[in-house]
């Protein structure tokens, strides 16, 4: 008997574990174990680039140089951002970065600190 969860994308029973993630060999969908523990009615669920769940007030670190649109400023790799706020949309993190000010980031370019 398979104790692993079914694929949330296609419903396949042939899933397998890969580290802390589940993988469906039929549709290639991947999801984290933490995603199963989170209630879908809970609201906004945002994960960092490595699949760790983020919450309001967390600190994150930038993992890629990011150009600030409309200026010549760059947010450098390793910049630590404290006290984030999660929002709905493409850029799903609101924050203030020292020396730059208020801005929005995509969660795919940060890791939980």
TrEMBL record:
Start and end residues of each Protein YjdM C-terminal domain: 46-113
Please state every residue range assigned to the domain named Protein YjdM N-terminal.
3-32
Query: Superkingdom, according to UniProt?
Result: Bacteria
Gene3D superfamilies found in the cross-reference section: 2.20.25.10, SH3 Domains (2.30.30.40)
- What is stated as this protein's family in its record? Belongs to the YjdM family.
What is the protein name given in its UniProt record?
Answer: Alkylphosphonate utilization protein
- Organism of provenance: Candidatus Thiodictyon syntrophicum
């Amino acid at each position: 008997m398979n104790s692993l969860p079914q694929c949330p994308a296609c419903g396949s029973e042939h899933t397998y574990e890969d580290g802390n993630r589940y993988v469906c060999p039929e549709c290639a969908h991947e999801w984290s174990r933490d995603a199963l523990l989170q209630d879908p009615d809970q609201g906004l669920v945002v994960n960092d680039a490595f699949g760790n769940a983020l919450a309001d007030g967390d600190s994150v670190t930038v993992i890629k140089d990011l150009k600030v649109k409309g200026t010549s400023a760059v947010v450098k790799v390793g910049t630590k951002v404290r006290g984030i706020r999660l929002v709905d949309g493409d850029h799903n993190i609101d924050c203030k970065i020292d020396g730059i000010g208020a801005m929005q980031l995509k969660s795919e370019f940060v890791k939980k600190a």
